[in-house]
Amino acid sequence: MSDRAEVVIFWILAVPLVVAAAGVVVARNAVNAAMCLVAAFFCLAGVYVLLTAHLLAFLQVLIYAGAIMVLFLFVIMLLVTSGSAEPRERVKVMQVLGAAAAVGVGAVVIRAVIEAGALPMRTVGPEFGTVKAVGRLLFTQYLLPFEATSILLLVAIVGAVVVAKGKI
Amino acid sequence: MMPASSYLALAAVLFTIGLAGVVVKRNVLVVFMCIELMLNAANLTFLAFARQSGNLGGHAIAFFVMAVAAAEASVGLAIVIAVFRTRETLQVDEVTSLKN
Predict the structure, then answer these.
(1) pLDDT tens across A108-132, in order?
(2) What is the ipTM of this complex?
(3) Of chain B residues 39-98, which have a CB less than 8 A from chain A?
(4) CA-CA distance, A71 to A157, in Å (whole number)?
(5) Are B45 and A131 in contact (CB under 8 A)?
(6) From the CB of residue B95, how many other CB atoms can be counted at a distance below 10 Å?
(7) CA contacts within 13 A on the Cβ side of A68
(8) What's the gap in Å between the CA of A144 and the closest CA on chain B?
(9) Tens digit of each residue's pLDDT (9 = 90 or more) over B62-84
(10) Residues 6+ apart with CB under 8 A from A66
(11) B21 in contact with A, Cβ within 8 Å
């Protein structure tokens, strides 16, 4: 892919990504926020493809935009009653301070990125980021963490059932 | 090739938006979504550095982050449901029984 095309595609994906992410925070209705988040995840999957992370882009759509967001939407449907749009409340001082602190943290991080310089990409082979290459890595060097992940997911399933069933 | 710094800057912006949402929003479900946004920003950083260094390790870590995010979402939403059952609220500042 030519250099110019990559820049164009990056901006085509990055601008909707940031807009959708901002929509999650701005939306008054939880369902609208969830829909904005799905859009953000799809744009992010595109950015992953630009980074030649094909397997991760695929998993991003499957797991995040698919499974996790379906879970969120189910819980929203269960819990959020009709007329759920948040009433326009007075903004608290702590919220303003919190937003300012978040922007401050963001400024520090972006300054660190700028100070790190351009960090040019290395050329990689055609195998980079494919299912074969990542899978081989997961089943050799990262075999133990990979198997531990299955225990983590099992514990999460059992925990979710136990917590959601009983009363707190 | 585009330099890695543009991807890192994008991740920083995403992280900031997520952090602002966690601090500002009061609906616990939206707070959860903003946490997912922050996890995704971290994933983007991992992938950008993996591409920049030509090392696939970042992809493996991003994979594990996704698994942890799935586990976190399921347990977190279960806790939300359990709290809603007794309190009938989704506002984070109305659940204060651990205070004092």
Answers:
(1) 999 999 998 888 888 888 889 899 9
(2) 0.92
(3) 40, 43-44, 47-48, 50-54, 56-57, 59-60, 62-64, 66-75, 77-86, 90
(4) 13
(5) no
(6) 15
(7) 29
(8) 12
(9) 999 999 999 999 999 999 998 88
(10) none
(11) yes
